[in-house]
Amino acid sequence: MLKALTAVKNYMDSSAVRGVDSTYIIAPKRPWQLLGHYYLSEMRQNMKSYFGPTEEFPRQDFSMDLQDRSKTLQILGVWVGYRGYGIGYSVDIGSHTGSLFTMSLTGGSYGLNLRIRTFSSKHPKLMLQGVDEDGEYIDMDGELELSRPIRVRSFYLDGYYLFNRKHFSYAAAYDQSVIQLRSSGSLMVGAMWQHTSIRYNDNPNAFLVELMHDVGVMKISQGSLGLGYAYNWVPCRGFLVNAMAMPMLTLYNTQEMEFYDAHSVDDETTDNDYLTYRSSETYRSKVTLSLNARMSLTYNWRRLFMNVYGQWNRFRYNHGDKGSGWINEWYVNTSVGVRF
Questions:
Q1: Quick one: pLDDT at residue 317?
Q2: CA distances from 25 to 18, 57, 170, 201, 304 (A)
Q3: Which residues are CB-neighbours of 59 under 8 A, at least 6 positions away?
Q4: Which end is more exposed in the chain, N or C (fewer Cβ atoms within 10 Å of the end residue's Cβ)?
């Protein structure tokens, strides 16, 4: 057992610097890293529904936007890693409505990152615009107050491959398992898989389900491929600036919708309203273009290091005459770490 562990350790140590130019990239003598980090994070979603003319209401023609976003979450967490292989956990210390779990694997020419993100909200923004069933123009913009929250859970898995591993290190900018000594850049290819579930199918939300064309649950799955460029700029010893941009084609884009029949009781509350499950349908969207962008600042000083980086993602989907939507996510991470 000890021999096997030693073999794994030796492989991880050698893979950190295999094939690199040591005048550009070096591995610290102390392989372990312990980080404390503080995130500022926000996730926003938009769900659009269309209401065209029907036999019952031939004059109606309006659209409805339901915008829901997390508060600007304050997330505190820890991360521990060995030569770029690590695990972390973070919790919301502000509104206590979300959490973030992360795991990463980083090699000289590749990287793999996993994130699981959750949040809930009781105050979505509702906008209506168009002509109602009476032929009157409507333009509404307000905030709903729900007794049961909209619950969002997202799973992200992304990976990349670098073409210039000899002179450029992505890990130097984002997990500090190696140190970049001189400026360099690289083309990179990447892939991303994301799955997001949006649920508001609690009985008191029957009126909201009815507004959303009887949809109470949406499960969005997307697979994307992209080609981008990243650059590490070293203006002085110990200081590193990284920027990365990767346009991505979303080649796989499906939405599974769960439909419910809403039953509203005519009283002053929604406590007695209820939903009954009816059916499920799956829709496929066309190929769409999205963007994955990152920027990082890192400073190394002896055993200590500091890092600030930000990321922005946008995902779009469309489910035919039922509507469309998008999901935006951004976060900024500040961390302080020590090698040992």
A1: 76
A2: 10, 68, 11, 52, 18
A3: 53, 131, 132, 133, 134, 135
A4: N
pLDDT score, position 125: 81
Domain encompassing residue 137: 2-339
CB 200 within 8 A of CB 216: yes
Q: What pLDDT sits at residue 3?
A: 75
E strand or H helix that includes residue 290: strand 288-301
Query: Amino acid identity of 141?
Result: D
The model's pLDDT over 168-209, given as tens digits with 9 standing for 90+, comes to: 998 899 888 889 999 999 999 999 999 999 999 999 898 888
Best CA proximity match to 54, nearest among 138, 141, 131:
131
115: how many CB neighbours lie within 10 A of its CB?
20
With tokens 């084609």, the residue in question is 249
Look at residue 157 and give its three-state secondary structure: strand
Q: Say if residues 340 and 303 touch (Cβ distance below 8 Å).
A: yes
Q: Can you give the C-alpha Rg of the chain in angstroms?
A: 24
Structure tokens at 306: 């500091």
What does pTM read for this prediction? 0.78
Q: Which two tokens stand for residue 213?
A: 């064309």
Total of domains in the chain: 1
Specify whether the CB–CB gap between 175 and 84 falls below 8 A: yes
Q: Residue 193 is part of a domain; what is its CATH number?
A: 2.40.128
SS3 state at 322: helix
Low-confidence ranges of the chain (pLDDT < 50): none
Residue for token digits 């050698």?
A: 14
Angle at 154 between CA 202 and CA 51, to 5 degrees: 55
pLDDT computed for residue 138 by the predictor: 74
